[in-house]
Design goal:
The protein is of the alpha+beta class. It contains 8 helices and 5 strands, in the order H-H-H-H-E-H-H-E-H-E-E-E-H.
């Protein structure tokens, strides 16, 4: 009887040791059992026939946009960069629409400063924005700034956007004269003479810093 108890104890210890080793060395979790799927209408039945961009993947319909719609973009990848002079309409295309549209929509500038900007003369003003689409600060601040200028009523044709690479270089002959060290940089000109700039992040807010530059505060 004693021998049986000893053998049983040794077997139990060996089993416990094996579970501990399995926990330390396991790198791929086992696949869970498939869960029961409740009875629901097919996504194809609830989506319009002409679905918005990306909805074809949700509807289970094969589409050339499927890969782009589900892709996780790496903005450090040079193939995604916008370089040189940028038309703002480029931000409406993948992959940039993902950060531009949400950044523009979700920002709510201080209306008191917008009101002050709306009363400011713009005929002699131009703005140059230097950004890197690889840069998180640029992807955050540029949509916000463009929303401010739209609410302000500042003409888009008086805004120049320049895209730079990760070394902050743009393929433009006159670019070096801007002396860009960080992005984004928002440069304000009055009668083609620089009046001030916001570099990387605002001191207070984009709308207040813009007001301060234009009024000399």
């Amino acid at each position: 009887m004693r021998t049986v108890l000893i053998i049983t104890a040794i077997a139990a210890m060996a089993l416990m040791a094996g579970c501990g080793n399995a926990r330390k060395t396991r790198t791929v979790p086992s696949e869970p059992a498939p869960a029961a799927v409740p009875d629901e209408p097919s996504p194809a039945d609830t989506l319009p026939e002409v679905a918005p961009y990306g909805n074809a993947a949700l509807a289970g319909k094969p589409d050339e946009a499927d890969e782009a719609a589900t892709h996780v973009w790496d903005f450090r990848d040079a193939t995604t960069w916008l370089l040189g002079d940028i038309n703002p309409a480029m931000f409406l295309n993948q992959p940039h629409s993902e950060w531009y549209l949400s950044g523009y929509r979700d920002y709510h500038p201080d209306q008191a400063f917008i009101a002050e900007l709306m009363g400011h003369e713009t005929d002699d003003l131009t703005i140059t924005i230097v950004l890197g689409t690889w840069c998180p600060d640029s992807r955050r601040e540029v949509p916000r700034f463009l929303k401010i200028t739209d609410l302000w009523g500042f003409p888009r044709e008086k805004i120049r956007l320049i895209g730079v690479d990760i070394n902050k270089i743009a393929p433009l002959e006159e670019y070096a004269g801007l002396a860009i060290e960080r992005v984004p940089t928002f440069i304000f000109y009055k009668n083609n003479i620089e009046k001030g700039r916001i570099i990387e992040v605002p001191v207070t807010s984009l709308e207040q810093d813009t007001r301060n530059i234009l009024t000399g505060k």
